[in-house]
Amino acid sequence: MERAAFDSAAERHARKFYTFASYLLGDPHEAEDVAQEVLVKLWTRGGGIPTDRLEAWLMRVTRNACTDCLRKRKRTAEVISIQRDDRPRADRPSPEPSPERMAAGSELGARILGEMERLSTAARSVVILREIQGFSYVEIAEIMNMSLDTVRVTLHRARRRLRESLKEVRSHVALG
Amino acid sequence: MNTMKRMSIAIALCTVAAMPLFAQTPGVYAVEDLGLVDPNALEVDVNLEGTTLQIAAGAMQDQDPRLVELVTNLSRVRVMVGKASDLIPAEAKERIDGAVAQLESRGWSRIMRIADGNELVNIYSLDGGDGNIAGLTAFVSGEGDEAVVVNIAGSIDPVLLGSVLGRLGQLDLDELMSAVPNGD
Amino acid sequence: MSLSDEPMTCAEVTRRIEAFSDGDLEETTVRGIRRHLDVCPTCAEQVELARTLTAELRSMPKLDPPAGLLDDVRSAAGIPGSPRAVTGPDRRSRRWLAVAAAFAIAIAGALLVHQQHHRTAEAEALRAAAEVRLALACFGDITRRADRSARRQVIDENLLPVISRSFGLTERNHSRSAETGAPGNVERSSS
How far from A42 is each of A28, A32, B117, C139, C162, CA to CA, in Å? Predict the structure, then answer.
């Protein structure tokens, strides 16, 4: 890929795939690793991708890299911590997920992200792409390599599950 | 069935069998934990993952595009070659049997198992489910001789792999390794 | 899809909750749903939950990658014109680094087309490339050795006796078979 095209594509799309990786993995360091991997793939293979397909391609590469990452990781129950950290890599402590370090400082948001961890990777991906990042169903179908119907059904089921969790959370809060 | 046909079928079977089989899930296996290779007597110790592999692919861009394509789709390359660990045969066998049982319980398929003299070669693959191979694991063990463990994971196109290995096979490993000085 | 003024069931409303929250339905359907919500507290609660969920998720921030990520990648990947960067901690053994560095230099003339560079990041990339080639070559070596052994054994076990018989010769005790042990020590899976 040409240097100028690489720079332009990276500047244009990095935020999208880094956001996706961050929410999907719930770990800023792993998300950074994935983002690095995606950028290197952009450099080595992006030259052959038409510009209008590049965004979907990058998101698909991100999804695959995240899936690999999740497989490697030993999953324990975690609360998602999503906090931007601009300190140099070596200085950053390993992230200690805690309910307090939550996106936008919203406790409800924190709980929702926690519940999302219980969804399958595919369902969580669709929720992130649609609800957080605002991709269309068609775009999501392309990124996830699913049919449109599958995207709709997956999203519907995921949202229903999240609503149920939210209802439970609320009733505990009301009782507690 | 005449002899010639039988011979050609046998040879074809050998060649096909030497190619990785199709299989199913993530292909990482910690071959280094088998303890078959003496860590103090390594001739080759390659441990590459993720981004480093992508960077390696980037550095190969002006070479064989098939090699670049293959490496770009790898997530892990772990190879150890060296003197076999000082194990009694029964213990070595136990470790190998244990590894085989582990692999098979995780859905890996045996491609080949060869006993040639005192050398035992096991090659396993894991189907990626999409026509590609998710992992390849090989271990070569022999009493007091050289031992090799290999684990390659990713999305491996078997035809591409066969083609790349064929070309790399034109290199003389011994010559290349002897060009490398030992130690720091 | 539009519906008549027939009252809607809970199932019909639940199916359309997301579309309703997103404002993606026709006016007649929206009216039908609203009429149902007026008399069904369960569905009303589901709609409210759906709206809360959507509102929270949509308010979550889009995140920027850490500063310097792009520069680090440019340097590490040896992209022309990149600033030099200090590479991160190397997980490979020190011994292999030295060997691999020497190996990369050794094969550069024979195999690599690149000129030797002195920049740390590019040398790292070349070294990694050299290691990958070596690793793949090792694996290839194993499969070839195993294949040769298998071929030899299959020929010995299955064909030479046949050939011997067809030429009226007695079966020989082949030295290879004796080395490799009893017949049947080749186990091969077919695809």
Answer: 20, 15, 48, 28, 57
Q: How far apart are the C-alpha atoms of C99 and C73, rounded to whole Å?
A: 25
Range of the domain at A76: 3-175
Mean pLDDT split into 10-residue runs, chain B, 184 residues: 42 34 60 86 86 88 83 92 81 85 89 80 88 90 77 89 72 47 32
The answer to whether residue C180 neighbours chain B at the CB level (below 8 Å) is yes
Total-model pTM: 0.47
Q: Are B27 and B127 in contact (CB under 8 A)?
A: no
Residue among A90, A91, A94, A92 at smallest CA distance from A78: A94
Query: For C63, which of A84, A109, A167 is closest by C-beta distance?
Result: A84
Q: Which domain holds residue B98?
A: 3-178
Locus of tokens 């390594």: B42
Q: Chain C partners of B171 at a C-beta cutoff of 8 Å? A: 111, 137
Count how many residues are written for chain C.
Answer: 191
In CATH, what number is assigned to the domain containing residue A11? Answer: 1.20.140.160
What CA–CA distance (Å, rounded) separates A109 from C131?
46
A2 — contact with chain C (CB < 8 Å)? no
